[in-house]
Design goal:
The complex is a heterotrimer of chains A (about 160), B (about 300) and C (about 725). By secondary structure, chain A is α+β, with helices and mostly antiparallel strands. Chain A contains 6 helices and 5 strands. The N and C termini of chain A lie far apart (about 55 Å). The chains are: A alpha+beta (about 160), B alpha+beta (about 300), C alpha+beta (about 725).
Chain lengths: ~160, ~300, ~725
């Protein structure tokens, strides 16, 4: 089946079985390895991508459902010469350990901040409900997203809230 | 296996009439792909193809029609959270939608898919039942005749249970939707007498599972009418992992809308109710009674502005 | 650090390591990524035929049908293995790599299938036929294998008050997100593993024995692009890859599905009792019985049980300890340690008993603990207790007002304390820690360690140590693992690197490199004496300096690389921790919130605070998983961000390490931090829940019946109905 879709801003025309899972297609065929396979059940969030700007589990999407859609992966979010404010916040807050869950967290955190530039800590927790991390206990990730949510001290910089 | 993804209703109806019996109707696929890791092979003994209706915008419309509110079957659950009409007239639906699964799932699961799968822990099914929702279904065509549409009460959509098994060893028991393979759920209708009655109220509450991606033990929805500070009627629907569908009228008729009276009555009601008839698993029946009372208390406290 | 962040960024443009940058961009590669996209083309696929029965014999494995399947390569059974050894050297009757004629658990490996494509592999797995004779009796057997006795002190003759508690802590079934997978490259009779991390020396030696080849034929490589999963290795993965590659002479890859994961921690049950003197308010005796369920094969269970029995007395000075232990085998998947050497959850039992004793004596739990601390080996524990007291003054919960209707109770709050001290034994054997440091032309440094690959925060801590000695910025260092060419006999089975020793080796290596940098600097600046300062060699007399980058670049012929092997180790510093947790329950729905967890930790000198914070936060998450997993239908009870708690705070005892660039600190952190944190947090949560619910918690995960309120009879005072 021919699927016409857009990936990270580029229009694509792919010949692929409509029953191929989006996650498998991204990883095995397109070699975009940012979205990870953690559970294949839509529980861990490691495969989170955007479809038409909204977070989705790539492991629960068939290519047949992607026709006409715009898909964004972590590779599409990356900026060339620098990090996005949220990526920078994750680095500054030392919110990364093994890193397996991070691309998914970044996708969801960025989508949340687009929708609500000033989410409270509970809203951030609810937005990240679909993510699992076995390494860190989440506090620093929440700090990172909350830190970015504050108004920037100067243009282009995320201000970190100092927590004791 | 075939994958058919029509864009227009007439197209979908034609396909259904012609070979609907061989096709599995799918929308968001979030339930199916989670449960059947080898989809579509796992269902290939039963179906020759998939009819994907998830992109059919005519089936995703939500609008008011003569005082009733219709919600298209392929409306995404996340869309309900942002619906202004529901926020005003049926806030329990918003809460139920927000309580469903995770944000990723809500963005892509359809209301019709949620209802059709029939999980006992589904917040939306419970809430729609409490609001006396109807389901509009297009039935499969019979010889020489186009398919006809009919409205049925949501509670009548289900008949017994269905046990689904996957090759990975997964087991899932849920309500069995009576729709046949060529029947198509078109929309859900919330009746005007529930939404627009002066003094109408509704709420939704659920137990938060401890590991929060798991499913709720008890979900509860209440709807009723109160005028001049007195409750005219109130009823609840409770279900969840631990309770099968429990519908009950709450003994609040003529009760003043104030703490002591309401909670007294509700406590006595839950104390005496035989939850063991509905208990599926989990805590004991008497504990379930206290849990249900706790959720009712929380809900009514919210209505009273406490 | 001795160079500011901005100065470092000015020189090197980025404050972040390549590994961190890769991870946040989704560019870090893990073993499953190799399998998705990065394998070389000529790789075979190996899969495992497993027993569908728990407890069964078999006489024949029939692989005659595989010859009809295109791209099938071979089937490997027990008799093909040069030495079909057992997993783990300590067990007398260990699980063999492939079963020879009987199995004990469902899922036990029986044969390997190797094919040239994944599709052929799936067909091949189904084509192997085995004539099973299930043994229904052994399926339900519970067999005692080893017994132990831990005794100290003398029993008194008087009878004193005592309290006891039965407990049960079944296996925690969980796994990390990434499935176990990897591949091994076969070239020129050498095997190079790509499983995300290195092999330990003892694993290399074991594999060499199994295959009957030389140690030097076995290597492993870390992920080359900065991302790796931190040293977690599944024993089946490495030996199956090794066998498949060695016997087919091909590179092979293996991916375990989630249902094949080797998961499940040891389960415990038993009963403990403490007795105390009400007059002197002293703890007297600790007695009891502890059983450990090892699953089908004992593995390390005996050792873990002995450690558990030692931990049971925690930091308290019991006059008499008398504990019996047994290792029990059941026909389930063999269990293993979780979060260190076994989940030393026994502490939560002891802590509940100590709390009960304090309550019976009507003195504050903290005061009671302080008065009963061990006289030796627990000096810092007293400090920990004092700090905890500052955090949380003891308080009494207000009793439930029985005159109020039940629906007026807002929430029930509980507060609990947990403590543990980890006193490591003197090591008889020690797997050497080798660290090398090299100054690269870029002006940055490469630290290499031959121990298993470290997680990101352990690496960061080593960078802090080296940066301090070499007067530069921690981000100037990258840490990598590289296996040694020559392998001696590994003295100890080390499955995870001890940061403690690696830090010591790093300090020594950095100190050696410092001497070389000074010599190179003197030559470069033609000076008689230079010092190291802010990433440069400096001739203070002439006010000249040369940065490390320029030094490396212009003096490329200089030897600016060192290696240090730590062979002699002293007594490592033990770790003490106290935690205070606060939880709240809805009185009716039982909905529970973990409001806050505060931990006071004596971890010795702290080289990297953030790493410890993450360890505490993870310990809270895992403790919650251990408590709440009864509600979970799948095997993965990992809490989500919504599960809380709201607040996790770490306080570390201050150690005046100051500047250790010239003089080695007395010790580098502590051993056993991960174990202690998990147990202490778990104990504090259990005590808090017990405090709130007023009930003894005999079992974790908490049974559902425990979480929700029991029916209240006359304790509810109901208003009269108005009719």
């Amino acid at each position: 089946m021919i699927i016409e879709w857009s990936l990270n801003g580029r229009p694509l025309r792919s010949e692929v079985s409509p029953f191929r899972r989006l996650l498998d297609y991204l990883r095995s065929d397109l070699k975009l390895l940012g979205a990870k396979e953690g559970c294949r059940e839509g529980k861990c969030g490691a495969c989170t991508v955007w479809i038409d700007g909204q977070v989705a589990n790539a492991c629960l999407k068939l290519m047949g459902q992607i026709d006409g859609k715009e898909v964004t992966t972590i590779e599409g979010l990356n900026e060339k010469e620098r990090f996005t404010p949220l990526q920078e916040a994750f680095l500054t807050c030392s919110a990364i350990e093994c890193g397996f869950c991070i691309p998914g967290m970044i996708m969801t955190g960025t989508a949340l901040l687009h929708q609500d530039p000033n989410p409270g800590r509970l809203e951030i927790r609810e937005a990240l409900k679909g993510h699992l991390c076995a390494c860190t206990g989440y506090q620093k990730m929440l700090d990172a997203i909350e830190g970015v949510a504050l108004p920037p001290a100067s243009e282009g910089q995320a201000r970190m809230r100092i927590r004791r | 296996m075939e994958f058919i993804s029509p864009k227009y209703l007439t197209e979908a109806f034609e396909i259904l009439d012609e070979k609907g019996g061989e096709l599995k109707i799918c929308a968001g696929l979030t339930h199916i792909l989670r449960f059947y890791s080898d989809f579509p092979e796992e269902l290939s003994n039963f179906y020759k193809g998939v009819l994907h209706i998830g992109d059919m915008t005519p089936l995703a419309e939500c609008r008011e029609e003569s005082g009733r509110y219709s919600i298209g079957a392929v409306t995404k659950i996340a869309a309900l959270e942002a619906d202004a009409y529901l926020a005003r007239y049926a806030p329990s639906v918003l809460d139920a939608a927000h309580s469903t699964s995770t944000p990723q799932i809500r963005n892509h699961r359809t209301v019709g898919g949620e209802i059709a799968w029939g999980s006992y822990h589904s917040p939306l099914i419970t809430t729609f039942m409490a609001l006396k929702a109807k389901v509009r279904i297009r039935l499969r065509s019979s010889r020489g005749q186009a398919g006809r549409e009919e409205n049925i009460e949501l509670v009548d959509l289900y008949d017994g249970e269905i046990e689904r098994s996957s090759t990975g060893g997964g087991q899932h028991t849920s309500r069995n939707a009576r729709t046949k393979s060529q029947d198509l759920i078109l929309k859900f209708i919330l009746p005007s007498e529930v939404l627009h009655m002066p003094g109408a109220f509704s709420f939704f509450r659920a137990l938060t599972p401890k590991i929060s991606t798991e499913n709720s033990g008890v979900v509860l929805a209440v709807s009723g009418v109160a005028q001049n500070g007195v409750i005219h009627s109130a009823s609840m629907v409770a279900s969840g992992l631990w309770i099968g569908t429990l519908e009950a009228k709450l003994p609040l008729e003529g009760v003043k809308m104030s703490d002591a009276h309401i909670f007294e009555r509700l406590y006595a009601f839950c104390d005496r109710y035989s939850f063991d008839r509905y208990r599926r698993e989990g805590p004991s029946a008497s504990q379930l009674g206290l849990v249900v009372f706790g959720l009712l208390k929380e809900g009514f406290s919210g209505l009273l502005g406490r | 650090m001795t160079i500011s962040d901005s100065a470092y960024v000015r020189r090197f443009f980025s404050l972040y390591s390549q590994e961190e940058k890769d991870k946040v961009r989704g560019h870090a590669f893990y073993p499953t990524d190799y399998l998705s996209a990065l394998l070389p083309t000529e790789v075979a696929y190996v899969g495992v035929v497993r027993s569908p029965y728990a407890g069964a014999k078999f006489t024949k494995i029939d692989d005659s049908k595989i010859k009809d399947i295109p791209q099938m390569l071979r089937v490997i059974t027990a008799r093909d293995i040069p030495r079909n050894a057992s997993f783990g050297s300590r067990a007398a009757l260990g699980q063999l790599i492939l079963a020879e004629n009987q199995v004990r658990y469902r899922g036990e490996p029986v044969a390997l299938v190797v094919a040239a494509s994944p599709e052929a592999l799936q067909k091949g797995l189904k084509a192997v036929e085995i004539d099973w004779e299930p043994d229904a009796v052994s399926k339900n057997k519970r067999e005692q294998t080893q017994t132990f006795h831990h005794k100290s002190g003398k029993a008194g003759s008087e009878k004193f008050a005592s309290i006891s508690l039965k407990f049960q802590f079944p296996s925690l079934q969980t796994r990390y997100l990434e499935s176990e997978s990897g591949w091994v490259e076969y070239h020129d009779e050498k095997l190079t593993f790509h499983i995300g991390s290195l092999l330990s020396e003892s694993q290399r030696i074991w594999l060499a024995q199994v295959l009957d080849i030389e140690n030097s034929k076995i290597f492993a490589k870390e992920s080359p692009l900065g991302g790796q999963f931190g040293g977690r290795q599944q024993r089946e993965l490495i030996v199956f890859l090794a066998l498949a590659a060695y016997l087919t002479k091909l590179s092979v890859c293996l991916h375990f599905s989630p249902t094949e994961q080797d998961i499940g921690s040891y389960g415990y049950q038993g009963e403990l009792s403490v007795s105390y003197d009400a007059r002197t308010k002293k703890l007297l005796e600790l007695k009891g019985k502890i059983s450990i369920d090892a699953g089908s094969y004992a593995g390390n269970a005996g050792l873990v049980l002995q450690k558990t029995m030692e931990h049971a007395s925690s930091l308290y000075d019991f006059k008499h300890i008398d504990l019996e232990g047994e290792v029990v085998l059941t026909s389930t998947h063999p269990r293993r340690s979780l979060k260190g050497e076994g989940l030393t959850a026994i502490t939560w039992v002891t802590e509940q008993l100590v709390e009960s004793a304090a309550k019976a004596l009507e003195i504050s739990p903290l005061e009671f603990r302080s008065a009963n601390l061990r006289s030796s080996g627990a000096e810092h524990s007293d400090l920990v207790l004092q700090e905890v007291e500052k955090l949380e003054k003891p308080f009494r919960l207000l009793p439930i007002d029985r005159n109020k209707p039940i629906w007026d109770e807002k929430e029930i709050v509980g507060k609990g304390f947990g403590f543990q001290v980890f006193q490591p034994l003197t090591l008889k054997e020690f797997d050497q820690s080798e660290v090398s440091i090299e100054l690269l032309h870029s002006g940055t440094f490469l630290i290499r360690t031959s121990n298993l690959t470290l997680d990101l925060h352990a690496k960061s801590a080593l960078c802090e140590v080296a940066a301090n000695v070499l007067h530069t910025h921690p981000k100037a260092f990258t840490v990598e693992g590289k296996m040694k060419e020559e392998v001696g006999k590994a003295a100890r089975r080390e499955t995870y690197p001890e940061f403690y020793y690696l830090a010591q080796a790093t300090w020594n290596a950095a100190n050696l490199l410092k001497k070389k940098l000074l010599a190179a600097g003197e030559k470069a600046l033609n000076a008689s004496e230079v010092i190291l300062k802010e990433g440069a060699v400096v001739d203070q007399g002439m006010n000249r300096k040369m940065g490390y980058r320029e030094l490396a670049f212009t003096h490329a012929d200089h030897d600016v690389q060192v290696s240090f092997t730590l062979t002699d180790v002293g007594q490592p510093h033990g770790c003490s921790a106290g935690a205070v947790s606060r939880v709240s329950f809805h009185p009716l729905t039982g909905e529970m919130r973990v409001e806050s967890v505060k931990v006071v930790l004596d971890a010795g000198p702290v080289f990297y605070q953030k790493g410890l914070e993450i360890q505490v936060e993870t310990a809270v998450s895992w403790a919650m998983a251990a408590l709440f997993s009864s509600e979970v239908s799948s095997e993965q009870p990992i809490p989500t961000p919504l599960d809380g708690p709201e607040e996790v705070t770490l306080f570390t005892l201050p150690y005046p390490i100051k500047d250790y660039s010239e003089e080695q600190p007395d010790f580098f952190g502590s051993r056993g931090i991960t174990d202690v944190l998990m147990s202490v947090v778990l104990a504090s949560l259990v005590n808090a829940i017990r405090d709130a619910r007023g009930l003894e918690l005999e079992e974790i995960p908490m049974p559902l019946e425990f979480m929700y309120p029991k029916k209240k009879h006359q304790t509810v005072h109901m208003l009269n109905f108005k009719r």
